[in-house]
Amino acid sequence: MTSRRFNKLATRIGFWVLVAVVLIYAIFPFYYAVITSLKPSSELFSVSYWLDSLDFSNYAQIFSQSSFVRAIFNSILVSISVVAIALLLGITASYALGRVRFRGRTTVMLVVLGVSMFPQVAVLSGLFEVIRGLGLYNNPAGLILSYTIFTLPFTVWVLTTFMKQLPQELEEAAIMDGATPWVTITKVFLPLMWPAMATTGLLAFIAAWNEFLFALTFTLSDHQRTVPVAIALISGGSQHELPWGPIMAASVTVTVPLVVLVMIFQKRIVSGLTAGAVKG
């Protein structure tokens, strides 16, 4: 009896130790970035894990740069546009793939999944030629197009999996009432798909918000760049100075909104990702 109690206590202690290690591993980099952003330049290279005072000079410096503020606006515009387009196309495609029976449906789904596996660098040169040919180089529309190409497959896959689990009786009742496919999607299925839409929309937003390679390649001027590129191009007073304080302040500024969004929609994210895992 004593041995069993000891093993149970040891298991519980080991579990919480593991949880603590995972939390420290996940949270400490962000925590250190926050305290670094709140230190003056003279204290950046003195190692300390606590703040003696708050210094917002790094934040004042980055927000005094019009290019950084413009980059935030560009990122918001591009990310919201990508989410809207991906959800619109994803919902209509998921209805066709999840509710309409036709030959080759499984093949289409496999192709959709296969497209999402291509690394960005593999299609960079070809996509650059397409964007330049369309006249979208150094234009937010070029980023919206390229980001949508890579976020749409995952969106279609998740929404299709969710769409397949909706009761067939709902669609049959809508058809009996004379509803068109568009009315069935928007009035019947859409209210039930919020968990999956929240998941795919948030993940598409995060992907577009954090994307760096396409933003660096397809934009040229400060007026059109997004936040990740703007942070990478923050420079110091000389070519030998790396301004860690402003870089950390900019990183915290663009990370906090994502953390807040994830905390708000965390329950919907979990329910959306597990949609279709259990049938019935």
TrEMBL record:
GO terms for cellular component: plasma membrane. Pfam families: BPD_transp_1 (PF00528). InterPro entries: BP-dep_ABC_trans_perm (IPR050901), MetI-like (IPR000515), MetI-like_sf (IPR035906). It is found in: Cell membrane. Keywords: Cell membrane, Membrane, Transmembrane, Transmembrane helix, Transport. Its main location: membrane. The chain crosses the membrane at residues 12-34, 72-96, 108-128, 140-159, 188-209, 244-265. Residues 72-265 form the ABC transmembrane type-1 domain. It is a multi-pass membrane protein. One of its GO terms (biological process) is transmembrane transport. Belongs to the binding-protein-dependent transport system permease family. MalFG subfamily. This is Carbohydrate ABC transporter membrane protein 2, CUT1 family. It comes from Billgrantia gudaonensis.
